[in-house]
Structures are given as C-alpha cells and as structure tokens.
Amino acid sequence: MTRRARLAALLLAAAAVACLSPRPETVPVADQLFARRDFAAAAAAYEEELAAAPDAAGSDRIRFYLGLAYSVPDFGGDGTRRAVDHLQQLIVRHPDSRYRTSAEVLLALLRQRQTLLGQLQQLRQTATTLERQLEEMKKIDLDKGTPPPPDPG
C-alpha cells in the first residue's frame, strides 16, 4: 500500500470515527468539493464559511473538515500547520463536539507524521554523508592502486 493510500485510509477512518450523519439533500459546495477530493478548493470554501460565521452552529464540523483537507500531503505548504490550528480550535471552542475525539486522533497522527518526516530527513542526510564518504574512500583506494570493493547495490 502506497503512502498516499495509507494516508487516505487514515483520513477516511478519522471521518468514520466522527460518526457523520447523512447530509441534507442540499449539500454545500465545500462538501461537494471535499467529496471529489479537491481538497484545496474545499478548504477555501470551508474557510469562507468559517469566516462568515466563526462560532455558528456547525462550525465544529467545518473546522474538522478543514483539518482533514489540510492534512492531505499533496496540499503542500503550511497545510499541516493549518490542519493542526483548526483541529486545536475545534477542541478548545467546542469541547463537547462529536468531532472532538476524531480531531484528537487526527492531531496525534499529524504529530506522528511530522516526527517521521523529520526522522526521514535525518536518515537521508546520513545516507548522503555515507555515500560521499564511500566515494572518498574509493578514490583513496584507487589512488593507492587497491581495487574497490564490489558495489552492494
């Protein structure tokens, strides 16, 4: 399973945990965009809804969906930070929301993803350093006339 497929499964699981009830027949544009996986456009539409009425009924749901939309790795930029901001606001502003537990789970997953991405970056730097050192050692061996070791890859 690819990284993208795993994340999609996690996001769907987070939405399922929220025990979402069926939507009315008139689904807002943001929900339609989200359902089509146009997360950037959905986020923009949800942001407009939230800006119009930041504490209106249903703003917890909007914050949750903003957290989901900004969590998608393809969102890029400061998506993770925005996701965390909206999910934390949901928890603080709506402590009794049915989305709270799902928001807490998603926050934990986002923090874990950030930790893993940091570790991956460190491992890549280490690999680059080791490759450079190996090339330097091969050059030293060639200068001495010693045949290089066989390439393990």
From the 3D structure, determine the CATH topology. Answer: Serine Threonine Protein Phosphatase 5, Tetratricopeptide repeat
Number of domains: 1
The helicity comes to over 70%
| Stretches with pLDDT under 50, minimum 5 residues | 17-27
Q: How many helices? A: 6
* Portion in beta strands: under 5%
Let me know the average pLDDT. Answer: 83
Helix-strand sequence: HHHHHH
Alpha-carbon distance between the termini? 24 Å
Total beta strand runs: 0
Per CATH, the architecture is Alpha Horseshoe
What does the main sheet amount to? none
Rg, please? 23 Å
Q: Can you say what the CATH homologous superfamily is?
A: Tetratricopeptide repeat domain
In terms of quaternary structure, what is this?
A: single chain
What do you see in this structure?
- The chain is mainly α and 153 residues long.
- The chain has a single domain (3-117), classed as Serine Threonine Protein Phosphatase 5, Tetratricopeptide repeat (Alpha Horseshoe).
- The chain has 6 helices and no strands.
- The protein has helices at 3-17, 29-35, 39-52, 59-71, 79-93, 100-144.
- The longest helix has 45 residues, at 100-144.
